[in-house]
Backbone:
């Protein structure tokens, strides 16, 4: 739910091209900041966590169109810079199975990595405050999923004029329909858009379904973290456990 | 995802003309299909593209068992029909775009072994990224075996029951926790064996 399952050709070209550009820029910056030896040493771990995320994504809860992402637990185990590369790899492989379009890989990487990175930092913060693993990881997962779902809705809302163009192709010509200024004729089009493209309805469907998914993912992530903490506490890299 | 091994088997063992075609040509073909999906905004055009892809699916003799993979993304496409206020044209357009994209990529994967795809991608993408892709692909098979074993063990011990949802949820989560720990252990062993074989951050393919 928290990443875009849009097929290719539904989002406007300028939007998904921008997604690719930002993803490449962030990737290059993170690549420069990470030591090469460290990256080479952790590549197999990155591969394993990305594979776990892909397997998690294959467990589909059909009634609410939700699948678990395992991005937050992967973010905690991999760290904020490696989770970015991890989500990029996950999105490329998932798109090769038709799970999300190829052109939206950049945007999906950004929204999904928001989840992993925010989840990592929130978990560290809540662990420092609460000193209890289960509530810290549950709240961190819930908030991280909320943030990434909001970013997904933000991305979807940026393409409203394009969806209108798909419904009424005779009114819109060309591939790039990015506009900076509105003219008078746009007001009448806006009225038509209000009637036909309904983002509020989309949000009203996505948020309640997403909320069920966030709770479920929060519970599963907490239970997974508890299991890992019981068997391999070193993996979570927690500070002193007793206050 | 369980069909992944079947997909891999079809890519390696298939003998059709599409299987024999160069991976570079097939990736270029996929890029052209994508261009068509992005630019074509009329229903007949997209329908024609889908029919062509279905024809290629038949000609390449890819097992029909794999075809269900191409329908899977429709589950999510349903969500986006709410945006349009259930406009038939928009729904058909989105569904056709979904089907064209998924049929194209599944056809590519079912007729081209993964290493060949990564080899082509390695010419244009950074080696670290392609290595990460390859290791992820390899890891999926390792974890899939662990997941199947764990799933069987859970079923045999009555760990997954609709009558006990909380207990089932705890067991599923523990299974994923087990999967992650096993995966991390396997990744450490994999790294050691790769270093022993001279790994320095890049995987070399046969013929390079």
Residues:
């Amino acid at each position: 739910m928290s990443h875009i399952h849009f097929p290719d050709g539904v989002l406007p070209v300028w939007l998904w091209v921008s997604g690719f550009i930002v993803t490449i820029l962030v990737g290059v910056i993170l690549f420069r900041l990470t030591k090469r030896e460290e990256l080479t040493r952790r590549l197999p771990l990155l591969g394993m966590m990305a594979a776990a995320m892909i397997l998690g994504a294959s467990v589909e809860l059909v009634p609410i169109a939700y699948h678990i992402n395992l991005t937050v637990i992967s973010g905690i185990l991999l760290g904020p810079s490696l989770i970015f590369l991890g989500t990029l790899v996950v999105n490329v492989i998932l798109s090769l199975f038709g799970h999300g379009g190829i052109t939206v890989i950049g945007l999906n990487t950004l929204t999904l990595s928001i989840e992993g990175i925010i989840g990592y930092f929130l978990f560290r913060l809540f662990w420092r405050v609460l000193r209890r693993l289960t509530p810290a990881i549950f709240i961190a997962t819930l908030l991280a999923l909320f943030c990434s779902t909001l970013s997904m809705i933000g991305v979807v809302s940026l393409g409203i004029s394009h969806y209108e163009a798909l419904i009424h192709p005779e009114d819109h010509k060309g591939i790039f329909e990015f506009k900076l200024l509105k003219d008078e004729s746009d007001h009448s089009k806006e009225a038509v858009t209000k009637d036909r493209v309904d983002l509020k309805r989309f949000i009203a469907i996505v948020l309640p379904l997403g909320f069920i998914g966030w709770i479920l993912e929060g519970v599963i992530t907490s239970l997974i973290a508890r299991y890992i903490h019981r068997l391999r506490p070193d993996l979570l890299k927690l500070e002193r456990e007793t206050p | 995802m369980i069909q992944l091994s079947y997909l891999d088997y079809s890519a390696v063992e298939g003998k059709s003309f599409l299987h024999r075609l160069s991976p570079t040509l097939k990736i270029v073909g996929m890029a052209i299909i994508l261009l068509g999906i992005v630019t074509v905004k009329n229903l007949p055009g997209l329908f024609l593209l889908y029919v062509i892809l279905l024809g290629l699916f038949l000609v390449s003799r890819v097992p029909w068992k794999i075809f269900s993979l191409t329908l899977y993304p429709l589950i999510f496409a349903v969500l986006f029909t709410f945006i349009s206020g259930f406009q038939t044209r928009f729904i058909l357009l989105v569904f056709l775009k979904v089907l064209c994209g998924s049929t194209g990529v599944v056809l590519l994967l079912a007729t081209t072994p993964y290493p060949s795809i990564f080899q082509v991608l390695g010419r244009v993408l950074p080696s670290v990224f392609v290595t990460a892709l390859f290791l992820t692909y390899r890891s999926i098979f390792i974890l899939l075996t662990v997941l199947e074993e764990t799933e069987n063990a859970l079923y045999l011990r009555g760990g997954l029951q609709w009558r006990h949802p909380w207990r089932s949820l705890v067991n599923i989560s523990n299974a994923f926790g087990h999967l992650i720990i096993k995966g991390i252990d396997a990744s450490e062993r994999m790294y050691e064996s790769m270093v022993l074989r001279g790994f320095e951050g890049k995987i070399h393919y046969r013929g390079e």
